Amino acid sequence: MSGWRSSPAGHGEKARERIRVYTEGIGAPRQPHERGFERGEGRLKGIIIVVIVVVAIYTAWKVVPVYVDEYQLSDKMQEQARYAVVNRYTEDQIRDNVFKVIQDLDIPAKREDIKVVSNNSVVKISLEYSVPVDVLMYHTDIHFSPNSEDKALF
Asked: To 5 degrees, how large is the angle CA 88–CA 83–CA 112?
């Protein structure tokens, strides 16, 4: 409620002056605010987000190293092709060098899977392999086929 309260009588000109006083809400009980998030929905949403983040981190922990190994192998194959052209390596020497890298990286491939074509002007190295990956109850094989080719400059 709001109203007007006049100043005390008997004060001459100032007695007619009115002072506005806001009285609404004084002493009235406060109304509770509606808060839907206090009913547990926010807690469930938070738990679901945490579970999704944990599963994503676990999946990355299992899958990312496989791709890093493939990248390193591909880089070493390119390097071997470059050196093989310059140093005139035989196909067996190239295959042995690549197989050492495969063993160092624990890649599930055999020496016979490495295909090498080498002549005086070009060296081609290729390989196809699959890596089994288990993520929780899901099993899959990730297939890779790195290759490299280098040509002589002369």
From this structure: 80
Q: Is 76 exposed, middle or buried (0-12, 13-18, 19+ CB in 10 A)?
A: buried
Domains, the chain, ordered by start: 40-151 (3.10.450)
The C-alpha angle with vertex 119 and arms to 144 and 114, in degrees rounded to 5, equals 25
pLDDT in tens, 79-119: 999 888 888 888 999 999 999 999 999 999 999 999 999 88
Residue 46, phi-psi category: left (phi > 0), alpha (psi -120 to 50), beta (remainder): alpha
Straight-line distance from the first to the last Cα atom of the chain, in angstroms, rounded to the nearest whole number: 100
Chain centroid to CA 94: how far? 36
